[in-house]
Specification:
alpha/beta; three-stranded antiparallel sheet; globular
Length: about 180
């Protein structure tokens, strides 16, 4: 069924390919998408498009990898989305606004329901937990963020490399600290 809208009227194309006006009380129901059938999630099927960029062994390594992301502003959100779509299996997300963490955890679960997501604050326990067990921590905090020095110090002591990602007016800057 296809819904067409014109100013003041909604029409539905029926099975005989006839335009049928929809009474205003039923418009929302007529144009709502049909629910998708429930399909069991399969990691290998979902991320098979990566093969060629990665080998099956590298894809399993990504699945077992834990990445910490500090800051869920525009740069952090895009980094997270890219890594989830690549098949990374575990994340620690830290932001001052816990609503950002919750929203991105839901977005991540939509792409990979098997992904493990720890939502943290940027306070001291959160900074320590961000580096704990991480393969890499990605710092997307604003340049003048108060917790940046503490984050880098914790990662240095834990031996976890930090990738600093900064949005620079339509471009991006990257710096890897070991």
């Amino acid at each position: 069924m296809v819904a067409l809208r014109s100013p003041g009227t909604t029409f539905v194309v029926d099975a005989r390919l006839q335009l049928q006006p929809v009474p205003w009380r039923r418009r929302a129901a007529a144009i709502a998408p049909a629910p998708a059938p429930a399909v069991a999630f399969d990691y290998h099927t979902a991320f098979s498009r990566n093969l060629g960029w990665t080998t099956p062994g590298e894809q399993e390594l990504l699945r077992a990898t834990r990445i910490g992301i500090a800051g869920l502003g525009p740069a952090g959100v895009e980094v997270l989305a890219t890594l989830v779509r690549l098949g990374v299996g575990s994340f620690a997300l830290a932001d001052d606004d816990t609503r950002h963490c919750a929203a991105q955890a839901l977005r991540t679960a939509d792409i990979n329901p098997e992904a493990r997501i720890d939502r943290l604050g940027l306070d001291w326990p959160g900074v320590e937990a961000l580096a704990q067990g991480a393969t890499l921590v990605i710092d997307t905090l604003p340049p003048a963020a108060a917790g940046r020095a503490a984050l880098h110090g914790v990662c240095r002591r834990a031996g976890v490399p930090v990738l600093v990602v900064t949005a620079l007016g339509g471009a991006a800057g990257l710096c890897l600290l070991r």
